[in-house]
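We close this part of the discussion by returning to an individual protein. The amino acid sequence and the backbone structure tokens for this protein are reproduced below:
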Amino acid sequence: MSGLLISRGSRERGSTLFVFAVAVVLPMTVLLTIAGLIKMHGNMQWDVYLLRLAARHHKPGLTVAMKTVTTLGSLLAVSLLASAVVVVLLLARARRQAFFVVVAVSSAVLLNLWLKVIFHRRPPNVVHPLLAPDKYSFPSGHTMSATALATALVIIAWPTRWRWVVTPLALAYAFLVGISRVYLGMHFPSDVLGGWALSLALVTGVYLMLESVLGKEQP
């Protein structure tokens, strides 16, 4: 029996370390690499190229769709979506999961505001933006907020059969919000990539921390 418990504990620690490496260390490495390149070189050639490439594919119908998608990544929209999720979880008496969603999304929003002030990266001026840009652009706030919510939903749903529905929808949501920011000329691709990476690392880190502090009933 003791051998079985030791084996199970080892597997759990191994699983936690794997998740930490893949979903925290790796994305943080990507983020720090991008941040370093921005600090050293400013606007990078591949950033400008992809932004101009997206601008060349502007079409009226696609523009309407992208404006709709980007609205779903706004602070108001993400706050409403997250609030709806929290209400559903509270009604299901999943208080820890509800708390996790609140902490994950709030942390992403606050961290994004702080980092934008730190980096002071101006929005793209190499293409004509289709919406009014934010004052600073790195990392993308829409992308971070949407990805934080999407990541939290995947983590909550993963132990259940709902993961087969929630995971593709959440990934598509985070991906399309990020793409919409580049298409509309609001952000450089590196702003979006940094937002994806940081939110994935942040929310996974929050999950692992809460799991450690609150115990295995945590999502």
